[in-house]
Design brief:
The protein is α/β, with parallel strands linked by helices. Helices cover about 40% and strands about 15% of the residues. It contains 16 helices and 15 strands. Helix 14 runs parallel beside helix 16. The structure holds pyridoxal-5'-phosphate.
Length: about 400
């Protein structure tokens, strides 16, 4: 059923990103086996939208100057982050609290390095964003998977089971809040329970809140630090403008640490890496965290909400396929288990028959088998095309 919403050039315009050195389209064939000639890129978690005009104007100003030397002071970006967290998320932080890294995967690597030792265990609620486990294992730490439970199509946490799993070797928990994949917006009660779990087992809590702005109507993101102010001495909040505004190529992320002693441990370990600022990333993040940026995000979420409904309705018309209802994120998490097919058959129909590049569920850890993740941060015409291709690829189930 075609969507009847008015054409919105900000989100409905199809931008040909091929040849722009982007991962999602230009590496789709080599990594995912789907040709960019006629394939649909629904894997890498960036959208196919331009950022708001205020970001574009900032970049154009830099380009007009045409000299790309060292970037200056980080404080304007810090101040923009302080403003954003206060006005959008009701959280007050100071310049000193914010350490700037080259994105949040980079930031997580530094946190693991600074706050744990080789051989330590790091806890994840799975399925979860695959780069977490990749960073932890590459750092010679051990991943401990605590599987989330699907309760009537919604992920919940089972602390009795997790308490029983802990051995004392665990030193850190990395949380995705809101959760990627599955799109849960954790409630204040759940965040409180996560904080208490970390206290019980003496874990550092790295709360990755990169998806914090991408929340659908009817849900509200709570910054964990506001729900559990008593655990600041073990809490790192990770935020970035990159996911919300589609500026991930700018490689900027914040590690926000309000406890001076904990922050010193991280800052001291960052120093030897000599990380300097990314000129474009800082300028874009600063511009995005503005009243113009805020208005654009509200419109984006309205657009994504319609994408989500269209995709869910289309995919659930296939017998045995169920979409986990997203409360946040543009990453649809689809359960194919009731089709009775194996993971490899599901994946091959999507890749070879539908010619769609989507992420295979098992790459997100335990609980991901026979799931696929589809990025719906696309112009609506592409969502309609994806639904039609997927219905065709599973036509024999009708
Ligand atoms: C939970 C989460 N953290 C971090 C990232 C990536 O962050 P960055 O691009 O800043 O490294 C992603 C990207 O999908 C994500 O989903």
């Amino acid at each position: 059923m075609p969507d009847t919403a008015q054409f919105d050039p900000r989100f409905d315009t199809i931008i040909d990103r091929r040849g722009s050195a982007c991962e999602k389209w230009d590496e789709m064939e080599s990594v995912m086996g789907v040709s960019a000639t006629d394939g649909l890129a629904m894997w890498v978690a960036d959208t196919d939208f331009r950022p708001p005009q205020v970001v574009q104007d900032t970049v154009e100003h830099l380009v007009r100057t045409g000299v790309y030397g060292y970037a200056g002071d980080q404080n304007p970006q810090r101040d923009a982050t302080i403003w954003w967290m206060a006005t959008r998320h009701g959280w007050t932080v100071t310049r000193d609290d914010i350490l700037i890294t080259h994105g949040l995967v980079n930031g997580l690597g530094h946190l693991v390095d600074a706050l744990t030792a080789p051989g330590d265990a790091v806890v994840l609620f799975t399925p979860v964003y695959h780069a977490f486990a990749a960073i932890i294992t590459a750092s010679q730490r051990v991943v401990v998977e605590c599987p989330m439970v699907l309760d009537d199509g919604r992920y919940v946490l089972d602390f009795d089971a997790y308490d029983a799993q802990m051995t004392g070797a665990e030193k850190m928990l990395v949380l995705s809040s809101p959760h990627n994949p599955g799109g849960r917006v954790w409630s204040p009660e759940e965040l409180r329970a996560i904080a208490d779990f970390c206290t019980r087992h003496d874990l550092i809590l790295a709360s990755d809140e990169i998806h914090h702005d991408l929340v659908y109507p009817g849900h509200r993101h709570h910054v964990l630090a506001t729900v559990a102010p008593d655990i600041q001495d073990r809490l790192v909040t990770m935020t970035s403008a990159s996911k919300t505004f589609n500026i991930a190529g700018g490689k900027v992320g914040n590690l926000i640490i309000t406890d001076p002693a904990l922050r010193k441990r991280v800052r001291d370990r960052l120093k030897p890496f000599g990380m300097s600022r990314n000129l474009f990333g800082m300028a874009m993040s600063e511009a995005a965290y503005s009243p113009e940026g805020a208005a654009w995000v509200d419109d984006l979420m309205g657009y994504l909400d319609r994408n989500r409904k269209l995709f869910d309705a289309g995919i659930e018309a296939i017998p045995g396929v169920r979409s986990i209802r997203l409360e946040a994120t543009f990453l649809s998490w689809i359960d194919f288990s009731a089709t009775g097919m194996s993971q490899s058959e599901i994946a091959s129909r999507i890749r070879d028959d539908a010619r769609i590049a989507a992420n295979a569920g098992p790459s997100f850890g335990s609980g991901g088998d026979r799931f696929m993740r589809f990025n719906i941060g696309l112009p609506r015409a592409r969502i309609e095309e994806a639904v039609s291709r997927l219905q065709d690829a599973f036509r024999d189930l009708q």
